[in-house]
Amino acid sequence: MTSNLLKPIPYKIKDSENGKDYYFITDKGYRYNLYYTDAQGYFGDNPIGENSLTFGLELVGGELPRGIDPRIGATVAKFLAGTFNADTTLTILYVCDTKDEREFKRETRFDRWFKEYNDGSVVQRKIANKAKLPAYLFYHVNHPNPKAVDNAVLEITEKINQYLP
Fold first, then answer.
1. pTM of the predicted model, to two decimals?
2. Beta bridge mates, 140
3. What torsion do the CA atoms of 88, 34, 38, 99 make, to the nearest 10 degrees?
């Protein structure tokens, strides 16, 4: 974790036009959507499934930007921390998108963001699986049922292993 004086200022997050998602625009004009979807189906009978989401970050249109913009990571970290601070019982599943075969680059970047910008309120658990699909479960450091979270990591790993070679 770096000093607050050295951390980049997050971009302003705005409500999207559909009223369900969020977005921000970088200094270079790139738009990123931030969104959550229901993740209950991933958790079976585990009680944390009742209050679980999947997280997505999507570049809208255009080519991938060149270089690294540290404000993007700071913005994503602020977005996730704000969500967890509003509800400490929440769990969030993040699976790196595989559509363009850049999932391992996403994993590396997301890991870096988490290490640099996590304020200590969010715990990250990697979901190891035989397909090596980069996936994580995030939860608030004060989650009321950490044992259920541990079980969920195992259950999700099993589900991924069932569906992937």
1. 0.86
2. 122
3. -130
